[in-house]
Amino acid sequence: MDITSIEFGTGVLYAGVFNNGVNAGLYKFVDNKWVEVGLSDLDIISIARLDASTLLLGTSDGLYSFDEKTSTFKFLGFQGSAINSVAVSSKKIVLGTSNGVYESDSAPLYFVPIKHVKLSEGNFLSVAIYKDNPYKFITGQDNGFLYRFDLNTGTFEMLIVNVKCIYSLFITKDDKIFVGTENACLWSDNNGQSFKGFSVKVSGGELQVDPLNKNIIYVGSDKGLFKSVDGGVRFINLGLPNNVVFSIAINPNDDKELFVGTSLGLFRSNDFGENFTEIKQFSGYSVTFVAISPSNQRTFAGSELGLFVSSDHGETWEKSSLSIKDLDFIPYIAIDPTNSNTIYVVTFIDGLYKTTDGGKTWQYLGYSDLSITSISICKRNPNLVYMSTTESVYVSVDGGKSFIKTFNISAGLDGSYMFKQVVVDEENPNIAFAVGDLVIYGQDRVTKLLKKIYDEPFLYVTKDMGKKWEKLDLPNTIESNNAIYFDKENNSALLLTGIGILHYDFNSMRYYYFTQGFPDEYIRVVRFFNDSIFVGTDSGNIGKSSDGGETFKFHAKFDNPILSLFQSPTNPDTIYAGTSMGLLVSTDFGSLWRKATDLSDAIYKITGYSSNGHDIIFLGTDTGIFEIDGSFDSIRKIYDGICAALYYDNGKLYAGTDNGLIVTNDFKNFEIVKDIQERINIITTFDNSVLAGTMNGLYVISGDGVKVVLENTAIFDILSQNNLIYLATDSGVFILN
């Protein structure tokens, strides 16, 4: 049974219930209980107030009205159609249905389809009308498309939001737009020109940092072009949503100008990406790489049509004398940072070309047998050139005349290295970084064919021009490693990974990344420590927010689900994390994590107290309860059996176990408080009572008395504050007093 919508009445709260037509319909909450009102054989999908005494009900089989004065229903039409959303203004009513969008005057009611090709058919799940314009609305479809339409002027506009499905919409008085999607919430504060919020997951294959402002970062992906102006904390989508962005080039002398090569052409911006102009010459063709010469401002564009050059900021283009074969394309261009006439061009089929006269003539260097992914030229010594391929890294000391394979670390019998990019220190040719993925293959049990079974992102560094490569530590939680930007000044790097921008500090050898929310993440635990929010996710990420949850900074390394978090009662900078495979600890308030013990149990809960200046920690695990001192010198098992909940209070340790709720005063001998025959998720104490949240309600135990609150409701977490109790349940958040 799902509650799909709610609406307030006079002294009552109405709720629409979706239950596949069984005990569904309209309910009202009155006298502290829910009462069925009617339409129990219909699923209520949406509710909107028409006037002071009338509700409009969108159902799985048509539109109904409900008169609160007479408690009667009236069928208004649309039999056979699902009315997914109803929006009402002072002038108009708009319906989002399974068969298009309909509108009617507020009185009399007479619905007609909106005559626009994009709105006349399709499954529209959500509608919202602007507060300051009763004729203008936005509507979202089950395929993720978002449209804006004005019934008065007939103006139609598609808003760009990269999601799979739009379930709900809301517009504030100041025209801020909120979009509820399949797993997140987005919002726009610029009238729908761009969206940001709790699903921005930036990944892709192209990373560029503004050479004049390192806080500005551009990322190209298969969902368009993204931009950050705060060093990668927040990203906004600049558009180009139907384009795969292959390459980004920023003018090194005028960073307002950038070129973006995509799967459908080449685009230019003169205002930091706020607006783009399509260069018609490349319309419909893939432009796979763009590069701008720092000295003479010449722009090179590699495409499936060949190599082109512009000397007037992209106004006109001339085809280069470099000829490529049919079906070939240019995946990389590298311009000598000391001599703009020296250029290396990679083609997918033939390999590597070089010019020393600005492209008038070309020398073929070979390497058609290698899949070259990047070229990096040392500024201090431009004859020193690094080249990455899908399988290795090569170095040339003679300006590309010859290359020597330098990376010879084995990937094992079933593995293969996939190098994405190599970058050399511009002042020290001995130092270079290489990123990519180590792919492990195995045989499919059914088809017996070879398939990828494991993908490990990597970051290697050499300090001796490739004679030796050192593997640097990376979190197991990242999905891929696609590109790198090396910041020589700060001795740090930005890595473009499958979960966003990873910040790597080579001075401290620490890394972290930011996220605006938790895309595709299941949040296991949330805790407040010292005015910061800590979260643990199902994928093993541990995040910390210092801005009230708007952004999170992640430092996690291990890919085991985070089940519990606990702050040291002795040292507030020490945080413990229970995972499915043991205990982690951080001694710097969540910046660096390490395994604390060899214990490999799933740790469901952690609690403890301070004794003589050090911690005594208790772990509730899948095999029992363990007592550990804060120095981790000793581990003692004090209970044998499953323990999913723990709570320490004034010398007493309460535990939710397979024997029910138990307690100990000496941490040796336990006695049963209540024989609860179901999983106990959370325990706390409040006003001389013990509260135990279970999968079937909240047990309140006071002395010898026991009562159950919210029966048939799963209680996952309990928080008490200001004499109120907040319960996190499978039916939402409840407050008890």
UniProtKB/TrEMBL annotation:
One of its GO terms (molecular function) is hydrolase activity, acting on glycosyl bonds. CDD domains: Sialidase_non-viral. InterPro entries: BNR_rpt, Sortilin_N, WD40/YVTN_repeat-like_dom_sf, Xyloglucanase_GH74. Gene3D superfamilies: YVTN repeat-like/Quinoprotein amine dehydrogenase. Signal peptide: none annotated. It comes from the Bacteria. Residues 307-404 form the Sortilin N-terminal domain. One of its GO terms (biological process) is polysaccharide catabolic process. Keywords: Carbohydrate metabolism, Glycosidase, Hydrolase, Polysaccharide degradation, Repeat, Signal. Belongs to the glycosyl hydrolase 74 family. This is Sortilin N-terminal domain-containing protein. It comes from Caldisericum exile.
